[in-house]
Amino acid sequence: MKTNYVAPYALAACVALGILNACHRHQASTRILFIGNSYTFCNGGIDKQLERLTPACKTECLALGGYTLEKHWNEGQALQAIRRGGWNYVVLQEQSQGPVINRTRFFDAARRFDSEIRRAGAKTVLLMTWERPDSVRYGVTTSNLASAYTSLGAELGAKVAPAGLACARALAGMPGLALYIQDGHPTAEGTYLAACVLYGTLFEQSPVENPRSDQRIPDDKKAYLQQIASESLCSCQVSQAHSAP
């Protein structure tokens, strides 16, 4: 898996842009709804890992095994949850193969959800998933997933949490690290990394040296994953800044 190297000047530019502003203070009332499947709820849930990283947010999760966003839409439960209102963000996680194999359905369902999310006074966040080893032959790769999520994010004007890119970067720097199994389901470390990426995406604050986290993960590994999340967020922001008109 290939990742983009972030040169020191790019990291400095990231800080200047304020993407990881250590002085940023987010509201204690931040409420986040997660809509996804087992990739979201594995290992106690990305939502609960996010709550561990910051006591300043409260989450609710509607995640069912194998569900696509289209299936969530058709069954109506997710729509009801959105319409209850009171959310700051709604995080959408598509079925792991969907953005590549069923790109049109992914885009259509996300558009419908985004419209309802905005109507409810919240903001859409797209959780980019990671390369799935058993589906690489079908094109479910880091680069193809990133392309789908970033294209959709640009169309909707929605934030994209680049967990898939962070996974690729982490594995490139530590090849023996286990972040997911053959069918892509995350390990505890994979869930933690995704939560760190979401933390930085939502609150624009670096997860580096965050003392609130899963005690099951060794401190050295935790520090590495925090740094990877920070670098991945910075890399994406710098890329967007360079491509802006």
In words, what does this structure look like?
The chain has helices spanning 8-17, 38-41, 46-53, 69-75, 77-84, 98-101, 103-119, 142-156, 163-173, 188-203, 219-243, and strands at 30-36, 57-63, 89-92, 123-127, 159-161. By secondary structure, it is an alpha/beta fold. It has a single domain (28-240), classed as 3-Layer(aba) Sandwich (Rossmann fold). Helix 8 links the parallel strand 4 (123-127) and strand 5. Helix 1 packs across helix 11 (219-243). The longest helix has 25 residues, at 219-243.
List the SSEs and their pairings.
Elements: H1 8-17, E1 30-36, H2 38-41, H3 46-53, E2 57-63, H4 69-75, H5 77-84, E3 89-92, H6 98-101, H7 103-119, E4 123-127, H8 142-156, E5 159-161, H9 163-173, H10 188-203, H11 219-243
Parallel strand pairs: 1-2, 1-3, 3-4, 4-5
